[in-house]
Design a protein that fits this description.
The chain is built from 14 helices and 11 strands. By secondary structure, it is of the alpha+beta class. It has a single domain, classed as Cytochrome p450, CATH 1.10.630. It binds protoporphyrin IX containing FE (HEM). The site of protoporphyrin IX containing FE has 23 residues, from helix 10 and helix 14.
């Protein structure tokens, strides 16, 4: 049996999972974590769902071993500190208290009401790109502003204050910087949101933070944590999907053509892009609270389990011909938004943004192509969320 010495992250091909993952046999593997402790890596789709469904696997990160050295807690601490309200890192029942307050605000029905405004935001940005002229960096001109503008409107964060959260979020998730610096960026971001929550309490608007601020269920600190989670989760991830997904489509013109010309394809294309690219490439991560049997082995209490979504979403036991990128593939259960109690709260929002953005971009610029050779597009190989740092295009 092979023992992995670290979580494989580097991709030889920007659209393929790390090669090491393709050489593994079976759904569950021994992996040595960055602090020397042994743990596990899940690469099977069925096994990943079992882990995410089982409350014996905790998501508090307490006691978790770091799958890569960059995720180790700061010197002198054994665990990362989780702020109040940061429910992605809580188990039930604590977690469900927050989730219950928020679910209705992110339902499919609620998101549908946002559709015209999201389309307007997308069209406005495309107008601006056309006005400025070629070449353009699609990350800064489109992929980042689309989800940022949308989540700002939803939460009630003034977009003109984006310098206070976009760069800070980028710093907080940039694994090239030392953990202390990332912690400082996170604290700065929370400081900004704490100030904003206070402003909303004093002068509420129609937005989500105002509604939660006046609802009386959350303390100031809790709402600050919730708002920080929603703002960061709401723009970094979708931005990376929009940019990396466009990069892939530009490299597969026949698939891009289907997205451009067939309105019925957008929804399946989004699921296939999510499956194929799996930008959440570190985790979800869980810690076993009891001995749990899985795939014929026993995961011992206290051991860390990391899911590899790039492998899970290419599991041949679940997806026929998993290496084939096909935007018409029948929508299958890709796990790019997770599964179980922590499954992505904003998934309907992200889906809607992507479903509108890719076709609109390809229709507006039918001659859209890379402005540099594909090999020169800078990749975010060791970031928390995989993607491209820039996407130079022309048309
Ligand atoms: C393409 C874009 C997105 C991807 C790939 C993505 C991915 C994920 C994944 C994999 C999880 C589960 C984490 C775990 O189990 O530990 C998650 C949770 C979450 N996501 Fe997303 N996400 C995206 C967009 C969004 C958006 C737009 C929002 C907006 C609010 C959002 C908010 C959240 C929140 C709040 C959670 C935590 C849910 C909970 O713990 O109950 N995400 N996301």
């Amino acid at each position: 049996m092979d023992i992995l010495q670290a979580l494989p992250l580097e991709r030889d091909d920007p659209f393929e999972p790390p090669a090491v993952l393709g050489e593994l046999h079976g759904p569950l593997h021994r992996m040595i974590y960055a602090d020397g402790r042994p743990g596990w890596l899940v690469t099977g789709h069925a096994e990943a769902r079992v882990v995410l469904d089982d409350p014996r696997f905790s998501n508090t990160s307490q006691g978790a071993a770091p799958p890569i050295k960059e995720l180790a807690p700061p010197e002198g601490l054994t665990d990362l500190v989780i702020p109040p309200g940061f429910f992605i890192a809580m188990d039930d029942p604590g977690h469900s208290r927050y989730r219950r307050l928020l679910t209705g605000h992110f339902s499919m029905r609620r998101m549908r009401l946002l559709e015209p405004r999201i389309q307007e935001i997308i069209d406005g940005l495309l107008d601006e790109i056309a006005r400025t002229g070629a070449p353009a960096d699609l990350v800064s001109a489109f992929a980042l502003p689309v989800p940022s503008l949308v989540i700002c409107e939803l939460l009630g964060v003034p977009y003109q204050e984006r310098s206070r959260f976009q760069a800070t979020t980028a710093r907080a998730v940039n694994l090239d910087s030392p953990v202390e610096e990332r912690g400082a960026a996170g604290a700065e971001l929370m400081g900004y949101l704490s100030e904003l929550v206070a402003r909303k309490r004093a002068a509420p608007g129609q937005d989500l933070i105002s509604q939660l601020a006046t609802g009386g269920e959350l303390s100031h600190e809790e709402l600050t944590g919730v708002a920080t989670l929603l703002l960061t989760a709401g723009h970094e991830t979708t931005a990376n999907m929009l940019a990396l997904g466009t990069f892939l489509l530009l490299c597969r013109p026949e698939q891009a053509e289907l997205v451009r010309t067939d309105p019925g394809v957008a929804a399946t294309a989004v699921e296939e892009l999510m499956r194929y690219l799996s930008i959440t490439h570190i985790g979800p991560i869980r810690v076993a609270r009891a001995d749990v049997p899985l795939a014929g082995r026993t995961i011992k209490a206290g051991e860390t389990v990391t899911l590899s979504l790039p492998a899970v979403n290419r599991d041949p036991a679940r997806f026929p011909d998993p290496g084939r990128f096909d935007v018409t593939r029948e929508a299958g259960p890709q796990l790019g938004f997770g599964h179980g109690i922590h499954q992505c709260l904003g998934q309907q929002l992200a889906r809607l943004e992507m479903r509108l953005a890719y076709p609109a971009l390809l229709r507006r610029f039918p001659g859209l192509r890379l402005a540099v050779p594909a090999a020169e597009v800078p990749l975010r190989q060791r970031a928390t969320i995989y993607g491209v740092a820039a996407l130079p295009v022309t048309w």
